[in-house]
Amino acid sequence: MTQEAAASRITATLAHQVHTLRLADVPERARHAALRALVNIVGCCVGGARHVIVETAAHTLLPYAGRPTSGLLGRPEQTDALTASLLNALSSAAYSFDDTHAETILHPTGVVVAALLAHAGHTPVRGDDFLLALTLGVDVASRISKAVSMAPAQGPIGWSQTGIAAGIGAAAAMAKVLQLDANRTGWAIGHAVQQASGLRVAHGSMAATLIFGNAAQGGLRSALLARHGLSGPDAPLEGRYGFAELFASVPHLAYLTDGLGERFEVEALAYKPYPCGIVIHPAVDAALDCRTRQRPGDSIAAVRLRVHPSALALGFCRHPADPLQAKVSLYHWTAVALATGRAGLAEGGSQGIDDPEIVRLRGLIEVEADTQLTPEAASLIVTHANGHQCMAEVAQCKGSVANPMTDADLEAKFHGQARLSLPPEAAAALLHACWTVEQMDNVADLVALAHAG
């Protein structure tokens, strides 16, 4: 087959992969990576379940919901599957504490898991089928995002990669558990392509989290419609006026199929040790390093920070007005780490935002975008009033693929979030269920363990 002919069948190739792949075909390392993704995102869902974003959406949408079949992680309500997928995806992203496909700044797992768990409340899904679908959904979403955003591809930075790609991954995952044939799997992908949307202008507002909910609900709906015969375009990803052509000025379609079935993108996920934008994490590491070396009585007089251009492009807000803006403020989290030596959920709250010393430090920080640095790196110089300087260099931030959080780190993060909604014994049972999900007869049981009164 010529290169041109292969490129014209990309959607069909992906659909065939989704239809035919078996869990036995997935290497053990990728299966374990999928379990890590699940542990991380369920913790995020439970921890974010009471966030004002989720409370607002639940109060608004639940009165309009259909037959209550599906549970909500960290909440007592049940609702219809489509509403549950949206609300659980909102919870997963409420604190920006989720996973990241670092090469693309895509956050796929919350969207895929929310769709799958919502469906499992309506129609049972075995744990091994769930794990395979999760692996496939993350793989499809990540490959699609790479094709329009990762060099040599070129696309506008203003598109939310989660908004445009994760819903397609959710549709693929749902197609797998629905046992759609390759043709209808392609339709499901095509329907999700029609709903691909999300702009980074929403960062710093509740609407940024709604992107996740819309993607999860859209992915679930796309597969259900395809299952019952709603047809779609033949080549929604690669065709004329299709996804790649419209979301990238220079797409790189080879990313969609290179290593397909041999390399799984779930292994490329990074997990956040701090509840803020992933591009901010190297600066936080550097600031925490300098904080540990700060001497009693030292007063900071100047802060110079060098970061990858994406950190400044996405974290440009110097003085956030509220916790939503703080999540994506490079200045705020650098200042918080320098002032307190911490960078947890509390530091992103209103008290941290208004703290006089943190406000002062935000005003001192000078940031330089350095194209020689990778997205995982940062360089910091802190000058104190007495002339003492602290310099910190970060080559690979904590949580990056090259410096990953361990399983124990993820478990500690899980418990730190789960305690916001669940008693300790319930959190421990839920964590065990995540690690052993492959043995479950129906993953809706996992959601039941995460119910909170």
Element layout with pairings:
Layout: H1 3-7, H2 10-20, H3 28-48, H4 52-61, E1 70-71, E2 78-79, H5 81-93, E3 99-101, H6 109-122, H7 127-149, H8 161-177, H9 182-194, H10 207-227, H11 243-247, E4 269-271, H12 281-292, E5 300-307, H13 309-314, H14 323-326, H15 330-340, H16 350-354, H17 356-364, E6 365-369, E7 378-384, E8 389-394, H18 407-418, H19 424-435, H20 444-449
Helix pairs in contact: 2-9, 3-5, 3-7, 3-18, 4-5, 5-6, 5-10, 6-7, 6-8, 6-10, 7-8, 8-9, 8-10, 9-10, 12-15, 15-17, 18-19
Quickly describe the structure.
This protein is an alpha+beta fold. It has helices at 3-7, 10-20, 28-48, 52-61, 81-93, 109-122, 127-149, 161-177, 182-194, 207-227, 243-247, 281-292, 309-314, 323-326, 330-340, 350-354, 356-364, 407-418, 424-435, 444-449, and strands at 70-71, 78-79, 99-101, 269-271, 300-307, 365-369, 378-384, 389-394.
